[in-house]
Amino acid sequence: MEKVWRFRLCFLHKGPNQIIRALRMLPICHFSSPKRLDVAGKLLEKMVETGSSPTIVTYTTLIRGFLKSHMVGDAFNVLSIMESKGDAPDLVLCNVLIDSLTKVGRYDDAIDVFVDMRSRKLSPDSYTFCSLLSAICSSRRFSLFPKLVCGLDIEADLLVCNSLLSYFCKSGFPALAVKFYKVMLDRGFTADKYTFVGLLSGLCKARRVDQAVDVYHGIVMNYPGQDAHIHTVLIDGLIKVRKFDRAISIFKKVVAERYALDVVAYAVTIRGLFMGGRTEEACSLYRQMKEVGLTPNEYTYNVMVSGFVKERDLNMVNLILQEMIEAKVRLSYNTVLRLSKFLCRPYHLNSVIELWIEMRNLGLISAEVMHELLPDEVVEGVKGDDGHITFSDAYSETDLHVETSGSEDFCDVVASIG
């Protein structure tokens, strides 16, 4: 990037012809990252000023960069400039618009782009189709799907099939999803992990637990060597619909069969044990995880703290916080909230308060979180050198549920690891 930057600067004092040649050699994509969009915009202006017409590729790259940074207005401005110059969006740009607008929550705009493709006589491809399905599923406007795709001729590749599986599950037709999955296999498609994940998570969300477990057994039997993610998806899906015993049973079978498991699989199962009131088993599994050589990650530690807070086990809260300090692991937003409620009560241990202060001083609790969740006087108290804090009960007396700290974070954890 440094070389590219110097390359651009060395031409800015040259004449129009040299600038045009330089800009043609220097793609705007180098500067279309969120931190460089200002540079990309200036490059585009310079191209126009010097009489060099930006190509559709240039416009597409810049529009993608703006949308990735949630700068929707700027993206539409670039699109308007492009169209005013007589350039119409091509298939690639339409696909970028549908996909990127969906990701920033502009579902109506994404669907409008798809509808406009017909008037532009652009034929959607499989990527268009999948991006449209994503917009429909994300907006939960499932009834639009038949109307929008009627008459389309799309080549059914694996990406399309996986998107359709996801649509059937999310729109409330899990039986159709299973049927379509079987048709895929009959037609010679080789299912991949996205196929399995979409089908298993969809069936669990639809509370088709028996079907989900049957499909899972078929996967591990017919497609040996699956990684930990497949097992974890089913276990997590069962936990989310509160089928704790079934989830723990699956986990134990996975361990017995010596299938691959990672720290996320253990953490998700530990969360399920806490949610099911099986605290001793959660502790045992936590120890087992470390014994097999898996180091607890941030998610695991936060699950443990939340679980013991729910059980009001002061000693274990103290122990896990000490481990987090030694490992330099941060408390999550939800765990801080839960712990702050816990410490407002009269039966907390002074040692837990001291650990709370130490974690805050080490940066394991962000100042922003402290100010957002706690009254100002509490935050000021944490800054004190004498270790004394007076917690005011700023929150209503509610049950502390460990599940709120985990289920919504699980996808992010898996995505970052997988």
Could you characterize what this model shows?
With 418 residues, this protein is an all-alpha fold. It folds into 3 domains: 1-87; 95-155; 260-418, Serine Threonine Protein Phosphatase 5, Tetratricopeptide repeat (Alpha Horseshoe), CATH 1.25.40. Helices cover 68% and strands 0% of the residues. This is Pentatricopeptide repeat-containing protein At1g16830 isoform X2. PPR repeats lie at residues 55-89, 90-124, 157-191, 262-296, 297-331. Pfam families: PPR (PF01535), PPR_1 (PF12854), PPR_2 (PF13041).
Rg, nearest Å? 27 Å
Shape: globular
H/E series: HHHHHHHHHHHHHHHHHHHHHHHH
CATH class of the largest domain, named: Mainly Alpha
Integer average pLDDT: 77
Strand content: under 5%
Poorly predicted runs of 5 or more residues: 1-34, 377-418
Count structural domains. 3
Main sheet record: none
What fraction, in percent, of the residue positions are helical? 55-70%
CATH topology of the largest domain: Serine Threonine Protein Phosphatase 5, Tetratricopeptide repeat
- Number of β-strand runs: 0
- State the end-to-end distance: 28 Å
CATH architecture of the largest domain: Alpha Horseshoe
Helix/strand structural class: mainly alpha
Q: Note the total helix count.
A: 24
Keywords: Repeat
Family: Belongs to the PPR family. P subfamily.
InterPro entries: PPR_P_subfamily (IPR050872), PPR_rpt (IPR002885), TPR-like_helical_dom_sf (IPR011990)
Organism: Prunus avium
